Structure formats: structure tokens, C-alpha cells
Amino acid sequence: MCSLEKRGNLFILILTGQNGEHRLNPNLFSSIISALSRAKTESTRGSALVTVSHGKFFCNGFDLDWVNAAGSDEETQQRFNLLLDYLKQLVLAFISLPMPTIAAVNGHAAAGGVVLALCHDYVLMRRHRSVLYMIDLDLGIKIPEPFMALFRAKIWGSARRDLLLRGLKIKGEEALKMGIVEAVYDGEEEVTNSGIEMADDLAKRNWHGEFYVEIRKGLYSELCDILGIASKAIATPKL
Amino acid sequence: MCTLEKRGNLFILTFTGEDQHRFNPNLIGSLLSLLSQVKAEATRGSALITQAQGKFFSNGFDLDWAQAAGSEQGAAERLHHMVALFKPVTAALLSLPMPTVAAITGHAAAAGFLLALSHDYLIMRKDRGVLYMSEVDIALTIPDYFNALFREKIGDASVRRDLLLRGLKMKGDEAEKRGVVEAAYDGEAEVREASVRLAENLGKRKWNGEVYAEIRKGLYPQLSAILGLTHKAYTIARL
Q1: pTM to 2 decimals?
Q2: What residues of A are in contact with residue B216 (Cβ under 8 Å)?
Q3: What is A149-189 written as a DSSP string?
Q4: Which one of A84, B69, B153, B161 has the fewest beta carbons within 10 angstroms of its own beta carbon?
Q5: Closest Cα to residue A202, out of A91, A94, A95, A98?
Q6: Do B234 and A144 touch (CB under 8 A)?
Q7: What ipTM did this prediction achieve?
Q8: pLDDT of residue B187
Q9: Predicted pLDDT at B138
Q10: CA dist A79 to A27, A62, A137, Å?
């Protein structure tokens, strides 16, 4: 599951449960989306959110055990499609969150877990014991929109090909060089604390959330068009 | 001319002879036909290497053939004809159901550079040969699909500007440093060996070709749209 902690201006989203792999199933998805809803409702100027996890994994993708436990091929497909729908809602919720967001990637992230990390404005990662792995190609699974659009929004040049079309397990230093992550740290505690520190620094800028989110949407306009949430111009009464 | 050879799992397309391998309707027709053949014979583990003999990878469209029309109007028509004819070649490469490597052992200019850039990976010589978009120097404009390819494959705006607007003749080590090619090596043999090694390593992953092609198209949506390539509906193979 997940829990949402408030610490001053910071919202700390903690992924818990699922045997430490924090695999995405309807329960975890609903839990995260609820938490984001709560953060949105309680947000003020100077809010920020950091997502943390503990143990070997940040998030190892969809709960395929749950998908495969379905009674028939048809139901298996339906369950998988449901998780895709949830993931889309998750992306929507993060992109619409009116505050800066940081993912502190403490461990491995695969497929949907990489999408989760990239939903954040900033990704910090552990240098060792942590890889980003778009396993989809290796499993023979196509990557649908809007998730391709999310990757295109955030990753450019040959890094895009290397993340999605090469089946690479990308370690911290490589991810940093590829421009996927902001910074790398040794140790789980260090990456978590740095995430919180960065969130604090961004929170101190005291940004107006509703402007922040519109600017974010403008940055990722292709993605937002596909998600149906194009940015709108807002005039501020004083400059 | 160009030939197609099968070496284990590798398809090897070679521009033969010591000439500039300029694209005229005949060569373009051959190329298209051979790529069709590659697609038809593709299996899991297939990979394509495109290479050339002599001092040139390809020096672009056959402008002599265009000028042989006898008038400025005639030449312009012939050039437009070649641009239109070449579009399916780019489309074929972008939708080829296997990893593709361009082994650039000589100069690649204009449409020749475009052909190389249409591959997933570019390996180039460090000691000889340049990548060169000659259009600005010879007063030609750049077709829409050429622009889309450069825009979506080359992430760095200043690199795109230098190649397209500055007529830069980019050598191997700069191309490697600036992310235009995957790697550059001293010597023709080294480039060919490295290309084979890369193609073989990619082939060993035994990716589902259809999934590979779909993900590839998703990396370059604008280009795909201009080339008339559509995303196929999402399905799962096995989990």
C-alpha cells in the first residue's frame, strides 16, 4: 500500500507492502491516487511532494501474479488493461499535482515503476543496487500511449532509444549521464534524505501551485494533449 | 548497386563499387525491394547492417541525373521525384521488425546521411569520412520527413542547427561526442567488426520484431505520422 505523511510543507508518499516489490495492482494504485488527491486538496503555496520507498525495489511494475491469477485468457487481458487504465490515471494525477514532485528511487524500478518515477518533476536515484529497466521489449509487450508520450516528454535523443528499445538495465551513473535522473547517491538513506532536502528547497520558493502546474503542462504539451489536460493561460493580477 | 546477403541471423545490405552510391530511381527501387525482402524473411533474432564499399557511404541524391533533364524545371521535377521515391525507404527502415545498424565507413551526405540516420544505431569511422547535410551549401531546402527525422532523433538543438543550418562536416569523434552516432572507430575494418558485433548482440536478445518496430515508431511519432506509419492497436503476447 502507501501512506502519506505531512511534514511542514512537505507531503511524503511512502510505498509500502507487496513483499517489498511494491508492485502495482488495483489496491496500490487506488491508494496512491487517493493520497495524491489528498495532497492536492491540502496543498498551499510552497507545498512539495516526495515519493520514497524502502528495500530492494522502488517499484517492480505491474502485479503480474494478480493479472495471471485470472480465470481465463480474456480475463487476464482485462486485468492487464485495468492496470493500464490505472497507470494512466496515475500519470494524470501526478502531472496535475499543483506542487513540485520528486521521486527518491532507492532500488530497482521496472516498467510501470519507471513510469511512476518519471511522473515526478525530479528523479533522484541510488548509485548502486538500483536499475531502471523497461522490461517491456524483453517480454514482448508493446508500450502504449500515453506512456510513450511521457517518455518522449522527458527523455530525448539516443537516451530515448536506449531506455525503451534496448532492454538495458540502467544503473545510477548511466541514468545520470543519459539525463534521466537529476543526481545519484550512495545508500538508501542518502537518496531518501536528499529527496526530502530537495523538496524542502523547492518548497521554499513558495510557488503558487496553480501556476506551477500550468507551466508544467506547457512543458509537456504533447503528453497533456494526449491526456486531455492541455494547459490554460492564467493572468496574474500583479506581477 | 546494392546487394543483400544473409550471414546467420544478420542481413547485410551493401552498396557495392567505388562510386558515390548516389540515389537515383534505380538504386532507390533496388533498396526498397531488398528491404521488402528483409522484412519478409525476418525472424526473432534478426538484425540488419547497412554498409558500403569505397570512400562513400552515400553522397545523396543523383543530382547529375536530375540535371540531365535539360532544364531547371526538369531538374527540379526529377529531384522532387527522388525525394518522394525515397520516403518509402525511410518508412521501411522505421518499420523494419528488427534492430538496424549503419556501418558508416565513408562520407554520408544529404540523403546518404538521412539513410544512415534512419537506422537504430550508427557506427562511424573516426579517421575518415564526414556526416554532412549539404543542402544549405547547394541552395536546396530540406524535405519534411528529413526534418522530422533530425528533429526526433537528435535531441540537442545546437547539434541540429550545426548540421542543418551551418553545413557542418561532422567527423566521427565529434559525431560520437555529440550523440549523433553510437560509436566511432579508427579504420574501416574496425567499423565493420564493431557493427557486426553490435548487430549480433542485439540479435541475441531475440526480440519480437513486431513489438520492436511498434516501440521504435512510438519513439518518433511525428516522423511516423509524416511517413504514413500508424501505431498498431495494443495487445499482450505473454506475461
Answers
A1: 0.91
A2: 165
A3: HHHHHH--THHHHHHHSS--EEEHHHHHHTTSSSEEESSHH
A4: B161
A5: A98
A6: yes
A7: 0.87
A8: 96
A9: 85
A10: 13, 11, 20
